[in-house]
Amino acid sequence: MSKHDFKVIVVGGGPTGLALANMLEQLDIDYVLLEAHAEITPRIGTGIFLSNSLRVLDQLGCLDAFYAGADEVEDLSVTVNGVTMFSPATAEHFRHRYGYVTCSCHRQHLLNVLFDNLRDQSKILVNKRVHEILETDTGVDVLTVNGEVYHGDIVIGADGVHSIVRKEMRRMAARVSPNHPLVTEEDNVNIQYATLFGIAYIDKPFPPRLLAMEANHGRSYLTYANAEGRIFWGLMERLPEPIKGNKAPRYTQTDIDALVEKRFDDEVLAGVTLGDLWKGSSETNGMLPLQNWVFDTWHFGRLVTVGDSAHKVCRIVLCVEV
């Protein structure tokens, strides 16, 4: 079989899925990408920070386009219980270590860069929420909730922490053996933190292009203001009790309000409190559980998982435990 006879079905159009689409296109491997949402580059999410991973964008040929809409982090500081552990010179250290500057941007910008870099964007399909995956004698069929069927040779799930591809892997594994490791893997995953995040504009002075991390017992903060004064911020809060991975909560506005009230007067940077950031958050904000896992099995049959569906790094800056 030549690579022209081989077709990949990519599920998920986030950064991982779009990066994979670029790789397949440049290798001249046929594919189709199925994205559940109505837009491929929605304005959801908050700030992201890239350094060593910029090498991937460089290899894909879209690094300059990324730089054009990103903000270079000039200084970095980490403070633990009021004691600074890393100085601003750390940002320059990262440049020498990775060969690239540390950058900040909105998640949407990264999606736009990866999508615009594709020569054939017709292979990126939206409103295609996957419902079921069936292995056949000649490959694999992917069924959507709208009744459409897409046939390929393998399926690659780049569909995040709530991966339908991974769920289908578990279902297939259970038919082979109820004791297959895939069936019970989530029972061993604990969620220990939640994150509250947002994008804010405030009237108080805030140092531009400083990536600041403030750690205290059971919680930590990350803040960054770009050159225009747009502040990306996040609170990582330790949960009272760990939660099993298969019981990850979907937080309500009541949960958000309770955490904001609890941490409202916390100073996240000199003279700036969480309350200041919350009151100034006119854009994206929300609260999510922070999953943390590296699953032992990343594939089953013709199904493969990548990105958060296979390994999810808990984005804890630093929390002091005593």
Radius of gyration: 21 Å
Strand content range: 25-35%
CATH superfamily of the largest domain: FAD/NAD(P)-binding domain
User: What's the CATH architecture of the largest domain?
Assistant: 3-Layer(bba) Sandwich
Detail the poorly predicted runs. 317-322
CATH topological fold name of the largest domain:
FAD/NAD(P)-binding domain
* Overall domain count: 2
On the 0 to 100 scale, the average pLDDT is: 89
Number of extended strands = 23
Silhouette: globular
The description of the largest β-sheet is: 7 strands, mixed
Q: Nutshell version of this structure?
A:
It holds the Pfam family FAD_binding_3. With 322 residues, the protein is an alpha+beta fold.
Describe the secondary-structure layout:
Elements: E1 7-11, H1 15-26, E2 30-34, E3 47-50, H2 54-60, H3 63-69, E4 71-72, E5 75-80, E6 83-86, H4 90-98, E7 103-106, H5 107-116, E8 124-125, E9 130-136, E10 139-144, E11 149-152, E12 154-157, H6 164-176, H7 181-184, E13 190-200, E14 210-216, E15 219-225, E16 231-244, H8 253-263, E17 267-269, E18 272-273, H9 274-279, E19 285-290, E20 293-294, E21 299-300, E22 303-305, E23 311-312
Helix pairs in contact: 1-5
